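Note to self: keep these together.
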Amino acid sequence: MAGLQTYSYPGIGEWAKETMSYSQAIRVENRIVCEPTPCGRPRLEQVYRVTTYSTDLKATHDHVVRNYRRWMPGHQPTWTEVGVKELGLDTMHFEIEVEALDPEGAAVAAAAAKVEGKA
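Structure:
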């Protein structure tokens, strides 16, 4: 799809891109969609949607709530909590998918695309 920018971080991100053919984050205009690890770029108050996947909801639910309150006090994005039998690797037990608005980053990306002749 034209206009999408994908990102894979050094280490596990590059490994996942090569081994499993997926990116850790993708920019769609002024939105950033991140999985399975949190994105470093958006500020937490820009996050509007979170989906968590856990192989043990009882073990992770309270941890997620506690971290929401710690890291996003006064900000309450939507949250879908999904229990799953297993995730992509045997060592994976918890996964987070985040969507965030990033209008400032979208403007920077658009300007860079113009310079590179992609827009």
